[in-house]
């Protein structure tokens, strides 16, 4: 029996026990601080084999390879040899007594447009690593500690292409707030992974078992696949170490199993003793089951939109029909224009993206556009070319919609593969070779036929959304046919969607007709309405229709309210949305009216960034939104810089940034640089793996007002203390700000440094430090 089948059989019987951490075990074997675990382990294969065997003896059913950082981005050129050596060490160690599995981690580079990693590059890196590991004999894969669902999807598909019959566990890391670094929730991950070709879904690292109980329950509620949990041994103490005892760890993990975890192991700070205690406490126990049927949702990187309850508004503004400026922007490949138009639909919970004549779309535009849309609402991909559909769905960080498929076998066959591969719902248009039937009964029959064609390809009926078809009154069409078709489809419990504005095409006074028809459709149970979401009255029509249809409770006041503290269409609002194009347009407009350039920073930029900070702290904004807003702020600063040259020097001082010696992770450092620069500080970025003397030298050279240090690994956090000590020895009282996954406030206080948990918080922390010094 192969390893994948062996694991599936074991999961059908009881909870499966994984191994624990690798890095701390390597350090106990002599690995120096800051060393690359994969390289050191490959150079010391005997010690690595001993570690794997210690987990087998402790009772691990599954033991993972030391290949977490085995992509070319982390290891550099030719990582194949190292991956091969490490896989052979694992196989030698388990020797049939446990299931050998490959550990694959993220590349360490943020995905475009947040960072420089393109989806195809990510896929290629994971494909190359998986090919070596599978070639060595591994067919069980744990994809661990991902923060971006798009990168996780690239890894899942790459591994599946290499190992069609292997076992894949797709995992992300969640903070104590329940979200990943990019703002993805456990619900979003579970629903997304349920539609991907993965066999299990879960979480590991970042937090201890207590903080993952809610994540287990959320995942279990959105997928029937086994749930994997690999928590840390609690949170780091003041020395940066995880000190939860094996007994305490086992007791807390027992709650994870009762909550529905099917596979359980340990991450940072755990060892064989933790696994031994865990297995002794949990014993031979089966895991819980997911609800049936599972909830139907659309997702993006940062949002989850339930289907089948309240009416979901789908913004229609990205459609070049009748929009000359949009049509020209698409043909010119101007993604900024299109992204700006997409962002200007405040009532939309889903965005419909229609690019018109697809043969006119420039190369690369589809991938860039949909990557840029990945951090917003879920997406309805309103494209027809199979190649463009594939490019669009690659970039989605969640469950989108393909709008739409006709009910013809060949048409469906050429497009359904993308949905089966990437996840997503299919909109069925009741159109066959002879067009759209006139009667509601015939339209429903056509939809049923289309569902049968989809089923032949393995596409489930619960992922179908039917379109009852809205035709224009000006053509003589009877809207009652649409409403009757909708009624029949709802009786069959099929999700429905409609392009509401089609009803008024060619008529004067379109807005009133559209809103009236929207209310009727909402009252009739329509699930998704494609409408003009730039209009504030859309909310009234939707709400009123749902009250009349009994879909939401009646309330005394359903008038419009504005929850935003920013004026609509203002410069501040544009910065908050991360809309670079609109930010520059608003700024130029204000400048043309004689507004003082400095006031754009003091009265607009600073207020927008303060509002962003409040949204971030309140979990209404996440990393993608922070980066987008920071880019808009940077663009504004660049516009204003020449105009401010005659003013007094506005720089708030120089800050020296560095990732400490032995650490090559720089995502957090780069974000801090982005936000500090946006706040008016000059930045001297020394890069990664920087020795303490070089940091002190840079402070002297620049007269820096502060130093900001980053470290991701426990083994390199001590280098921060070295920097602080060396600065003080040289008589420099420069404040040192530290941060990173393993860094805590207690550790910062111990070494005499400031602490910021998040990159955005570095601005506030530094400002407070400067005020104290003054």
Description:
It contains 31 helices and 23 strands. The protein is an alpha/beta fold and about 775 residues long. The strands form four sheets. An eight-stranded parallel β-sheet has the order 1-8-7-6-5-4-3-2, sandwiched between helices. Helix 4 packs parallel to helix 12, helix 21 packs parallel to helix 22 and helix 23 packs across helix 25. The radius of gyration is 28 Å and the shape is globular. About 0% of the residues have low confidence.
Blueprint of the fold:
Layout: H1 3-11, E1 16-17, H2 23-28, H3 37-43, H4 45-58, E2 62-64, H5 72-75, H6 80-94, E3 99-104, H7 119-135, E4 140-146, H8 149-162, E5 167-172, H9 186-195, E6 200-204, H10 213-220, E7 227-230, H11 246-259, E8 263-264, H12 272-282, E9 297-299, E10 304-306, E11 312-318, H13 324-332, H14 335-343, E12 350-353, H15 365-372, E13 379-381, H16 386-395, E14 401-406, H17 409-413, H18 416-422, E15 425-429, H19 440-456, E16 464-466, H20 479-491, E17 495-499, H21 510-523, E18 528-531, H22 537-548, H23 571-577, H24 580-592, H25 597-617, H26 623-640, E19 654-659, H27 667-678, E20 682-685, H28 692-702, E21 706-710, H29 714-729, E22 736-739, H30 745-751, E23 754-755, H31 761-773
Parallel strand pairs: 1-8, 2-3, 3-4, 4-5, 5-6, 6-7, 7-8, 11-12, 11-18, 12-13, 13-14, 14-15, 15-16, 16-17, 17-18, 19-20, 19-21, 21-22, 22-23
Antiparallel strand pairs: 9-10
Notable traits:
774 residues; eight-stranded parallel beta sheet; eight-stranded parallel beta barrel; 23 strands; globular
């Amino acid at each position: 029996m192969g390893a994948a089948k062996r694991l599936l059989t074991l999961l059908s019987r009881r909870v499966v026990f994984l191994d624990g951490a690798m890095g701390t075990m390597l350090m106990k074997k002599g690995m120096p601080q800051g060393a690359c675990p994969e390289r050191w382990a490959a150079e010391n294969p005997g010690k690595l084999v001993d570690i794997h065997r210690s987990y087998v003896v402790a009772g691990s059913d599954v033991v993972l390879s030391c290949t977490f950082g085995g992509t070319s981005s982390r290891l550099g050129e030719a990582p194949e040899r190292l991956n091969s050596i490490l896989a052979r060490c694992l196989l030698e160690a388990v020797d049939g007594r446990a299931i050998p599995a490959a550990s694959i981690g993220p590349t360490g580079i943020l995905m475009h447009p947040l960072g420089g990693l393109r989806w195809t590059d990510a896929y290629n890196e994971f494909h190359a690593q998986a090919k070596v590991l599978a070639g060595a004999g591994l067919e069980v894969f744990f994809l661990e500690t991902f923060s971006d669902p798009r990168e996780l999807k690239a890894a899942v598909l790459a591994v599946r292409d290499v190992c069609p019959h292997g076992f894949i566990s797709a995992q992300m890391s969640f903070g104590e707030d329940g979200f990943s670094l990019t703002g993805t929730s456990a619900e979003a991950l579970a629903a997304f992974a349920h539609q991907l070709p993965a066999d299990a879904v879960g979480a590991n690292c970042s937090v201890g078992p207590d903080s993952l109980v809610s994540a287990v329950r959320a995942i279990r509620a959105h997928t029937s696949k086994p749930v994997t949990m690999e928590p840390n041994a609690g949170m780091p103490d003041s020395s940066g170490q995880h000190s939860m005892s094996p007994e305490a760890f086992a007791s807390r993990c027992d709650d994870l199993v009762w909550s529905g975890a099917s596979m359980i192991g340990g991450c940072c700070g755990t060892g064989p003793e933790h696994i031994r205690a865990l297995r002794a406490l949990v014993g031979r126990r089966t895991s819980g089951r997911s609800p049936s049927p599972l909830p139907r949702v659309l997702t993006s990187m940062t949002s989850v939109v339930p289907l089948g309850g309240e009416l979901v508004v789908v913004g229609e503004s990205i459609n070049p029909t009748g929009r000359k400026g949009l049509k020209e922007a698409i043909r010119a490949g101007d993604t900024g224009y299109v992204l700006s138009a997409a962002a200007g639909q405040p009532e939309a919970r889903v965005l419909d993206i229609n690019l018109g004549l697809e043969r006119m779309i420039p190369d690369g535009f589809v991938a860039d556009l949909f990557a840029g849309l990945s951090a917003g609402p879920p997406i309805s991909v309103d494209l027809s070319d199979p190649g463009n559909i594939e490019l669009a769905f690659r970039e989605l960080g969640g469950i989108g919609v393909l709008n739409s498929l006709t009910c013809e076998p060949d048409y469906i066959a050429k497009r359904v593969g993308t949905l089966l591969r990437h996840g997503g719902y299919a909109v069925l248009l009741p159109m066959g070779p002879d067009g759209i039937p006139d009667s509601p009964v015939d339209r429903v029959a056509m939809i049923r036929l289309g569902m049968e064609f989809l089923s032949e390809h393995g596409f489930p009926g619960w992922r179908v959304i039917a379109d009852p078809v809205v035709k224009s009154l000006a053509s003589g069409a009877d809207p009652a046919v649409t409403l009757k078709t909708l009624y029949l489809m709802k009786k069959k419990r099929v999700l429905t969607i409609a392009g509401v504005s089609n009803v008024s095409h060619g008529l004067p006074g379109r807005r009133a007709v559209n809103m009236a028809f929207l209310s009727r459709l909402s009252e009739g149970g329509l699930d998704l309405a494609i409408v003009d979401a730039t209009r504030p009255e859309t909310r009234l029509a939707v709400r009123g229709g749902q009250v009349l249809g009994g879909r939401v409770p009646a309330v005394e006041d359903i008038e419009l309210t504005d929850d935003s503290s920013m004026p609509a269409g203002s410069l501040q609002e544009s910065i908050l949305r991360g809309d670079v194009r609109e930010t520059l347009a608003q700024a130029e407009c204000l400048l043309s009216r004689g507004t003082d350039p400095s006031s754009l920073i003091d009265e607009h930029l600073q207020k927008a960034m303060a509002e962003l900070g409040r949204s971030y702290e309140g979990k209404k904004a996440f990393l993608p939104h922070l980066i987008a807003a920071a880019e808009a702020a940077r663009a504004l600063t660049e516009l204003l810089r020449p105009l401010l040259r005659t003013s007094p020097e506005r720089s708030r001082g120089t800050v020296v940034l560095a990732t400490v010696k032995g650490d090559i992770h720089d995502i957090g450092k780069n974000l801090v640089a982005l936000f500090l620069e946006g706040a008016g500080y000059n930045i001297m970025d020394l890069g990664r793996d920087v020795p303490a003397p070089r940091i002190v030298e840079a402070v002297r050279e620049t007269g820096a007002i502060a130093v900001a240090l980053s470290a991701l690994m426990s083994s390199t956090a001590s280098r921060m203390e070295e920097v602080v000590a060396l600065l003080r020895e040289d008589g420099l009282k420069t404040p040192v700000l530290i941060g990173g996954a393993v860094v805590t406030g207690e550790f910062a206080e111990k070494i005499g440094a400031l602490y910021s948990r998040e990159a955005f918080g570095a601005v506030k922390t530094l400002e407070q430090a400067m005020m104290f010094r003054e």
